[in-house]
């Protein structure tokens, strides 16, 4: 197990939540991971104190100059990761055990056509699961950005995250592009990541705007023009109907339409074969009336 864990480094993006970050690092160490932890401080109002974090051992803070979002932060961290695999955590998530991380690393080592293993997220305060604990491991078309083991080579091959997706849908976009590059993603229920779900310092109106905007862009940038834009707008409006607050989400959808024209030259339509694979992987959730991939 030790040799497998030596092939893993941890990356965490944080903003304005130093107490939650310290708890995440403490819990990660207690779970048995002694590997390096790379932290991107996304221009916190009060910058994360390096001495506080460094006291926890083998951790390093990279300070961002301005608020960019997790897509930018994770790209920045992946530029300095030297291990074959990176464990993506949020500043309020941490692994249940080193053994489950090692098992995920072993799976990726043995299956080079897989680009990532995404974990089962379990809320620490009420035990609510993101997927059934009794389910079988299976290929999926999504990623939990706060709980996935990523193959660094696969991440680099597709150019990492699209940084224009500053917050919201960036993980789905990454998953779709991994599949478009012929990599698979495994959801492994025995790979458990606990989620403290910290609400501190969250601007819900800003988040709703970003989700509305990026829902449109997710489709516009990954499907053929202009069909992808139309599909994205339909889904953006549908999201605004079920999101609170609604007005910022709707405003975000309109912004997404405008930005899709500005970013038209950045679009990379997925092949029909890749899109069919994504649709097939989504189908069980669509039939249940649940869309875990479309944020």
Task: Give the overall average pLDDT.
Answer: 89
Q: Give the end-to-end Cα distance, rounded to a whole number of Å.
A: 35 Å
Low-pLDDT parts are 285-295
Global morphology = globular
Give me the number of helical elements: 11
The helix content, as a percent range, equals: 40-55%
What is the rounded Rg?
Answer: 18 Å
Biggest sheet character: 9 strands, mixed
Share of β-strand residues: 15-25%
- Tally of strands: 9
Question: Which oligomeric state applies?
Answer: single chain
Structural class estimated from helices and strands? alpha/beta
Please provide the ordered H/E string of secondary-structure elements.
HEHEHEHEEHEEEHHEHHHH
Write a concise synopsis of the structure shown.
The protein is of the alpha/beta class and 295 residues long.
Structure description:
By secondary structure, the protein is α/β, with parallel strands linked by helices. The chain is 44% helix and 19% strand. The protein is built from 11 helices and 9 strands. It has helices spanning 2-5, 18-30, 50-54, 70-78, 98-110, 152-157, 170-180, 204-222, 227-242, 246-262, 272-287; strands at residues 8-14, 37-41, 59-63, 85-90, 93-95, 114-123, 138-139, 147-151, 184-195. It starts with a helix and ends in an 8-residue tail after the last helix. The model is unreliable at 285-295 (pLDDT under 50).
